[in-house]
Amino acid sequence: MTAQLIDGNALSKQLRSQVAARAQALKAKGITPGLAVVLVGDNPASQVYVRNKVKACEDAGLHSVLEKYDAHLRESDLLARVEALNQDASIHGILVQLPLPAHIDAQKVIEAISPAKDVDGFHIASAGALMTGMKGFWPCTPYGCMKMLESIGYKLKGKHAVVIGRSNIVGKPMALMLLQQNATVTICHSATPDLKAMTLQADVIVAAVGKRNVLTADMVKPGAVVLDVGMNRNDEGKLCGDVDFDGVKEVASYITPVPGGVGPMTITMLLVNTLEAAESAAH
Ligand code: GUN
User: Fold this and answer.
1) Going from the N-terminus, what domains does the chain have, and what CATH number goes with each?
2) How far, in Å, from the CA of 46 to the mean position of ligand 1?
3) Tens of pLDDT along 99-150?
4) List of residues 6+ apart from 191 with CB closer than 8 A
5) What are 162-174's pLDDT values in tens digits?
6) Residue 95 Cβ < 6 Å to ligand 1
7) Nearest CA to 130 among 168, 187, 95?
8) Could you write out the three-class secondary structure of 160-224?
9) Which of these, 87, 151, 201, 268, has the minimum number of CB atoms within 10 Å of its CB?
10) What global pTM score does this model have?
């Protein structure tokens, strides 16, 4: 069997055009959705990510500001900037790019963002809302994964989903979203003794570890759906995910490629969250 691709670029294009239309409707009411992206330091990967986020905003007709600061920025100064953005009526979403330099307490900065503007969904109020099924912003990467499952008409009820990875950004919120759709969910991590025994039971596998070849063909039940959140480089320096794509695609029913899979969906859901933050502010 050769798996069908879930094309994150195509799905993003479709969803971003819906965002653009809704942004246009808000603009007609005098409100332009606005995102502030804050970057501290000169992490090269972060620089690429924030540039892509700002560009995606522009393309969808959203206002965006990029604030760049030197790596030596004081934590108190960053907190003051976040507070100013909380008060800024032209800004509906605030994103502080992670990682932050070691002398800054990232969680403290995240908690300083108003939950109403927490479009990354990292604030404990957003995490708590997700856990309890209340309204709140969902972290963009797992939210994008849910949209990919929705796009293939996949029904999670009664299915076994295995999430590999337990980060606050992907693994844990992913598990909660799958649970909310009535899947039976297993979270695996570095201390799981027999990962293969777990993944072989899975109808859906989400790989979110940040390591190549975490999931190989022998670990996948025929017909499973495989979502690859990884962003790694192979020996030739080419972008690759956590999944051995060439092997697993022969076993899975659906698979997301890297690049062109989950990656673009993360930014798409950021646009959706920012738009919805602006729509909420307009009411
Ligand atoms: N660093 C890596 N991914 C993300 C993300 O989704 N949001 C933020 N703020 N920083 C990140």
Assistant:
1) 29-114 (3.40.50.10860), 140-263 (3.40.50.720)
2) 8
3) 999 999 999 999 999 999 999 999 999 999 999 999 999 999 999 999 999 9
4) none
5) 999 999 999 999 9
6) yes
7) 168
8) EEEEECCCCCCHHHHHHHHHHCCCEEEEECCCCCCHHHHHCCCCEEEECCCCCCCECHHHCCCCC
9) 87
10) 0.97
